[in-house]
Amino acid sequence: MTNNWQEQAKQMVEQGKQAAANLVSGGEMVIEVDLERGFFRVKLRNIQPPQARPQLTEGFCQVLASGAAMFNLQVTKYTEKTGEKNNE
After folding, report:
1. Is-contact 75 65, C-beta < 8 A?
2. Model pTM greater than 0.85?
3. Max intra-chain CA distance, the chain
4. What is the pLDDT of residue 85?
5. What is the predicted pLDDT for the residue at 84?
């Protein structure tokens, strides 16, 4: 069963790479984690092209929210745009 799950995960990664090929050509993701507090922060850096950053950030938020739903977690998202905060 583990091998089947790993194969499915690999296929998903490859499909994601193909889908994102026209959006992003490279960059970095830094993840800071505090396991005891249940806290993590993600920073995208050097995203190429730079104008893809908002769409990429929103995509990661959607993936994270979908993952949380699998664990039966309620998601509240706070989006800050040019100085204002929007609750979703």
Report:
1. yes
2. no
3. 48
4. 57
5. 58
C-alpha distances in Å from residue 25, one per residue of 22, 31, 61, 85:
8, 20, 19, 29
3-class DSSP assignment, residue 22: coil
- Three-class SS of 23-36: CCCEEEEEEEEECC
In angstroms, the Cα distances linking 5 to 11, 12, 62, 69 are 10, 10, 21, 19
CA gap 23, 53 in Å, rounded = 9
SS (H, E, C) 57-82: HHHHHHHHHHHHHHCCCCCCCEEEEC
Average pLDDT over residues 32-61: 94
Rounded Cα distance between 88 and 13, Å, is: 28
Average pLDDT over residues 34-39: 96
